[in-house]
Amino acid sequence: MGVRSGPAAVATEPERRVAAQVGGALEAVFETVAATRAETTALLRRVAAGRRRPVSRDLAALRPGLHARLARDAIVSGAGFVAAPGLLADAPAWLEWWQSGADGVVRPLLLDLDPGRSAYSDYTHWDWFALPRDTGRRAVAGPYVDYLCSAEYSLTVSEPVCVQGRFAGVAAADVYLRHFEAAVLPLLRGLPRPAHLVNAHGRVAASADAAHLAGSLTRGPDFGELLDTARPGTHGGLRLIPCRGVPLVLVVA
What we know:
Radius of gyration: 19 Å
Pfam families: MCP-like_PDC_1
Helix content: 25-40%
Mean pLDDT: 89
Distance between the termini: 18 Å
Number of helices: 5
Organism: Streptomyces lavenduligriseus
Structural class: alpha+beta
Shape: globular
Low-confidence stretches: none
Protein name: Cache domain-containing protein
């Protein structure tokens, strides 16, 4: 992958501190996702214990928890469970998704998921769904313009939901990019050299480096493999520091 480890790759104390602080900022969102994951897993296990397949109305039991977390977590703009195709007996695809509006009111996301009419019927190729499904781990997708939910530039964090060893879908939460940047840009700007954050695919999640704008790609190293090792590295003059506990890499010029 072209990433080197060794003495030159040892992160400085300010870099380690910033990587840890970024991890802490995003960990709060993952706690919301983890709560949804736990509730969904418990619900699907109860349904399976009744020797039947879940149906869409079963997922209504998730709503009180989703509403409470959206009311509590100001940085989270949307949250829910996205079912794997074929999970439900009465619907080929389903998003049990709720959003907090500018007025503070929590509303459902209502989508037409008919494959004959809707461009959103197949969500399985989007990173927020595909990465947890394929890796079995938490993921950060974006930033991207979220035409599905808010038409805002957003990040989506997600984790796989598995029941009886089978992938059932993902628990996820949306964060407006402007809110994430408000939390992490002061940290990046405090470093003595230009720095930005990338996800496992190298997409820039936030940047204090004019050469790497949010949403662009940082090409070269395999960031996913670097996150697997959880060790700092270097590539082409860039210093790469995994953020503690979350799938983001701090990249310092």
